[in-house]
Recover the amino acids of this structure.
């Protein structure tokens, strides 16, 4: 566990440092060549730096043991931070779209396309490298997955920058040079407009965790398969399964309603069932908070007692 946490912190630090480098490079270069698209890329990276630092601080805070104040753990902080991260990105995308529309309506923007193309090549290569590093380790935590998503967006933004300015360079050798001022704001509009949906999707997913709603179908199906198998082998007629995913932790509660024919008799039998559940769900790479109860009266499994 501690090795995993160390790896998480190391990956988040790499993300912060590289994002900071490209943020400064993008803002400075965007101003020098008068490119709104490069400036947006730099501002996105700058926002990523601040949000990555927030993720790093919260990830370190979560791993500190404090069961007295947080008896169920601090994993709820993870989706809350993710909501904040993507809310800021959403605002950035909306403001950028509005700015791009204003530029298009005012006749475009003159840009030094040759120098902008150089930046696009360097930036795209760097973003691809960091994205693949994080994406390879995204299952370790929600923070790393969020970082990978951010770098995926940044990679595609950088790719769009590269495509846009490569197109502008080609146009500069044709009789359509008058279109060059429109390339930069048009690409900004396409890129920022497209990526508005990414933070919306991620905010919705994080809100589901904050509200402790059911997790992805794959997780629920996996546990249902295990529970059904136990019911068959131990002659249990009915059970109630509840699962909620919060950050990198699964809260699983299973109530088995026994009958006279059930093969669960002793405490040892109950512990054996618990061990089977854990062993058969090892493929789900989450921390698990497992509560398994056994009762002869279904009323005690309803959980809504007066």
């Amino acid at each position: 566990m501690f090795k995993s946490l160390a790896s998480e912190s190391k990956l988040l630090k790499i993300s912060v440092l590289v994002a900071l480098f490209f943020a400064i490079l993008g803002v400075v270069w965007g101003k020098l060549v008068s490119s709104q698209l490069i400036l947006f890329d730099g501002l996105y990276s700058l926002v990523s730096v601040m949000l990555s630092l927030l993720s790093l601080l919260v990830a370190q805070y979560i791993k500190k043991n404090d069961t007295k104040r947080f008896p169920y753990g601090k994993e709820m902080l993870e989706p809350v931070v993710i909501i904040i991260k993507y809310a800021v990105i959403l605002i950035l995308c909306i403001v950028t779209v509005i700015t791009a529309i204003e530029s298009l309506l005012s006749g475009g923007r003159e840009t030094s396309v040759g120098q902008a193309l150089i930046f696009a090549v360097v930036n795209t290569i760097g973003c691809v490298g960091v994205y693949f590093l994080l994406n390879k380790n995204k299952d370790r935590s929600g923070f790393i997955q969020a970082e990978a998503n951010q770098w995926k967006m940044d990679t595609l933004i950088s790719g769009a920058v590269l495509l846009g300015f490569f197109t502008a360079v080609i146009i500069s050798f044709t009789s359509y040079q008058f279109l060059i001022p429109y390339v930069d704001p048009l690409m900004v509009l396409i890129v920022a407009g497209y990526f508005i949906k990414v933070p919306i999707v991620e905010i919705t997913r994080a809100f589901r965790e904050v509200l402790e709603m059911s997790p992805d179908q794959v997780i629920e199906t996996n546990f249902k398969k295990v529970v059904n198998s136990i019911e068959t082998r131990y002659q249990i007629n009915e059970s109630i399964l509840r699962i909620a995913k919060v950050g990198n932790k699964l809260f699983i509660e299973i109530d088995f309603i026994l009958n006279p024919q059930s093969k669960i008799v002793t405490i040892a039998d109950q512990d054996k069932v618990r061990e089977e559940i854990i062993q058969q769900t090892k493929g789900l790479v989450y921390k698990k908070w497992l509560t398994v109860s056994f009762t002869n009266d279904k009323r005690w499994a309803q959980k809504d007692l007066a």
User: Anything to note?
Assistant: The longest helix spans residues 2-32. Residues 1-6 have pLDDT under 50 and may be disordered.
